[in-house]
Design brief:
2 domains; Arc Repressor Mutant, subunit A; Rna Polymerase Sigma Factor, Chain: A; 8 helices; 69% helix; mainly alpha; single chain; 200 residues
Length: 200
């Protein structure tokens, strides 16, 4: 019996094949399935809601153009993740070179989003403590985001991906084109460096 991951791969392949034979609704289904994940990856790298939205939109523009010639040498999800990571990296470096001001926003959902909005969702903490505790939590959250931004890129990317839903070490290694041991080492180094900087 096939497991859920194999079923998802089969469904993706079917949707790709349908799109390549002229069924435009198949592309809409792929977007619906992966838009949130593309946003989460981009947001994890960029730490900026509007930039992440822009990258996520660009991802599917690129995919729509390239999908007719997609041969399935890799899983659709892996291909989509690679495109997202590359575009988010490019945007991050462009922001750095332009000196763009970063707005760190680690609490979710995005401003103005409602439960019915079908917008990107995050599995980030939403505490309901006293006002003083909430202010202290927010200060720590902003400090973590700032220190994460200051980590070397190779460590930051790996740690961000690891902390996202469904991103295991093998997936991260595949996305970043590294050996499994290298990814584990990068994540361990990133966590150690964050603890050192935060004095935790």
């Amino acid at each position: 019996m096939s497991n859920p991951a194999e079923k998802a791969m089969t469904l993706d392949a079917e949707l790709v094949a349908r799109f390549q034979t002229g069924d435009r609704s198949a592309f809409d289904q792929l977007v619906e399935k992966y838009a949130d994940k593309a946003y989460q990856i981009a947001f994890g790298i960029l730490s900026h809601r509007q930039d992440a939205e822009e990258v996520a939109q660009d991802v599917f523009i690129r995919i729509h153009r390239a999908l007719p010639s997609f041969r399935g040498d890799s899983e659709f999800s892996t291909w989509m993740y690679r495109i997202t990571v590359n575009l988010a990296r490019n945007k991050y470096r462009w922001n750095k070179s332009r000196g763009a001001q970063k707005n760190f926003s680690m609490d979710a959902p995005p401003e103005g989003a409602s439960l019915e909005s079908n917008g990107p969702a995050f599995d980030l903490p939403t505490p309901k403590p006293s006002p003083d505790e909430q202010a202290a939590f927010k200060e720590l959250e902003n400090l973590i985001a700032a220190e994460l931004e200051n980590l070397p890129e190779i460590y930051r990317e790996a740690l961000v991906m690891r902390n996202m839903d469904d991103m295991n070490y093998n997936q991260i290694a595949d996305l970043l084109g590294c050996k499994l041991g290298t990814i584990k080492s990068r994540i361990a180094r990133a966590r150690e460096e964050l603890r050192r900087r935060l004095k935790l």
